[in-house]
Amino acid sequence: MRKLFVAFLTLGLVVALAMPASALENIFGGYWRTRAMSMTNYTGEDKTELGDATLVDTRTRLYYTAKFSDNFKFVNKLEWDVIWGDTIGGDIGADGGGSYDNLGTNTSIIKVKNSYADFVIGPIETKIGLQPTVLARGFMFDDDFAGLILSYSKDNITVPFIWMKAYEGYWLSSGPDTNDKDVDIYGLAPVVKLDKITVNPYFVWVTSSDASVWPSTAGLGVEKLNVYYLGADVDANLGKANVWFTGIYEFGSADPIGGGDSTDISSYLVGVGGDAEVGPAGVHGQFFYASGDDDATDNDYKAFYVPRGQSYDWAPIMGGNGIFDYNNSANSPGPTPTDVMAFNIGASMKPMDKLEVGLDLWYAALAEDNANGDKDLGTEVDLLVTYNLIENMKVDVLAGYLFAGDATYKGDNDADPYLLGAQFSFGF
User: What is the CB neighbour count within 10 angstroms for residue 209?
Assistant: First the structure.
């Protein structure tokens, strides 16, 4: 991976030296964080300690963009993550290693997060390569992917067409008909900006002739897969308040390996939230519901499900909050909402220029009863303190406690999960 890093930087230097100084702008940036976390009783009991973890990790990102003109950019981002004391970069010597596993997954400490060309011809902007995107606030997708985004823009309307190559069967699988094992994701997600309202409808199609070896669906007994998502985001700016709504309907079918009756997919997710200024404080709240499957024995699948890329951060213990998101408490779906409903209310304020304090209350339950007839995941209280140490560097300190319900754990030695964490971070 050192060779990859050197090659990446060399390419940038070659391009920079080859172009006239007036024709190229070199833009560098990055992000760094180091965080320490202690997670206790995440299984809902205090005997096995299976969910307990105390660790420190570091993430570094370096960005380089070659800007040839306002209409043409070459964007690159490198990332490496190290858990202090691991064997691929955090041990004595701190020399990163790594390789590719048999599924082609990059297990290296240094990873190419993004590398794409971004250019505009007429009303069409093209982004091609390894790039990020967000769909439905992360309820559907918030990740990087290999593929293409073509965006047509005029006045207050932008219409992106998205193609994601989720799995390449020819390269990563074996046996006959390897091309049938491809998995592709296609989407349209127009954005209409009105005076104080933004409307973002979208349609997404996940398709494969044989999804049996895709790691995201392997083991489910699925061969032919066609899943569709139809939804919309609405955002409104009401002066000192903002409100939002998301609604998604999922439908389609999955054929079993070897034939037989197809599984019909029909599920949904709805969410609503907002924030407002109230005197010296800011208040916020949200509610979302992701349907669950009420009968595992029939051929109707009703649980909202996204095979890959879904990432919606909510409660730090039950759902990950984007800062301390290493793990989530037992039986909660975490940042991939399915079979869950959650309600939040919170407030934050700045008692002094460099200090911000936030308090959040979350309640969550399963959408459908579990095998024991329970739904209640619990009520979580989180206190987050952010302090700007010096220019560009801040520290976040979080304390979270989950008053666990029976759906988190029901039995002997029950104990409430709690989280303590601190993070130093800066960007440039």
Answer: 16
Q: Measuring CA to CA, which residue among 266, 272, 226 is closest to residue 247?
A: 272
Task: For the chain, give every domain's residue range.
Answer: 122-267
Q: Which residue has the higher pLDDT, 9 or 144?
A: 144
Buried b (16+ CB within 10 A) or exposed e, 212-242: bbbeebeebebbbbbbebebbbebbeeeeeb
pLDDT of 41 over the 90 cut: yes
What is the spatial distance between Cα 120 and Cα 122, in angstroms, rounded to a whole number? Answer: 6
The answer to whether the beta carbons of residues 182 and 207 sit under 8 Å apart is no
CA dist., res. 345 & res. 286, Å (int): 7
Q: How confident is the model at residue 107 (pLDDT cuts 50, 70, 90)?
A: low
Tokens at residue 348, please?
């934050």
Residue 241 has pLDDT above 70, yes or no: yes
Contact yes or no for 181/212 (Cβ under 8 A) = yes
Dist. CA 292–CA 269, nearest whole Å: 10
Q: Any long-range contacts for 195-200 (C-beta under 8 Å, 24+ apart)?
A: 196/236, 196/237, 196/238, 197/234, 197/235, 197/236, 197/237, 198/233, 198/234, 198/235, 198/236, 199/232, 199/233, 199/234, 200/232, 200/233, 200/234, 200/235
Dihedral, 85, 88, 93, 95 alpha carbons, nearest 10: -150
Nearest 5°: the CA angle 67, 118, 166 is 140
Q: Which residues pair with 168 in a beta bridge?
A: none
Strands 300-301 and 263-278: parallel
Q: Which of 113-122, 211-220, 228-237, 362-371 has the lowest mean pLDDT?
A: 211-220
d(CA 72, CA 44): 52
- Residue 399 corresponds to which tokens in the numbers above? 């304390």
How confident is the model at residue 5, as a pLDDT?
Answer: 45
Residue 47, token pair as written in the block? 């005997």
pTM of the predicted structure, to 2 decimals = 0.90
The token pair at 143 is 């990740």
Q: Are 285 and 274 in contact (CB under 8 A)?
A: yes
Summarize pLDDT for 262-314 with one digit per residue, the tens.
999 999 999 999 999 998 999 999 999 999 999 988 989 999 999 999 999 99
- What integer best gives the mean pLDDT of the chain? 91
Q: Rounded to an integer, what distance in angstroms lies between the CA atom of residue 256 and that of residue 350?
A: 55
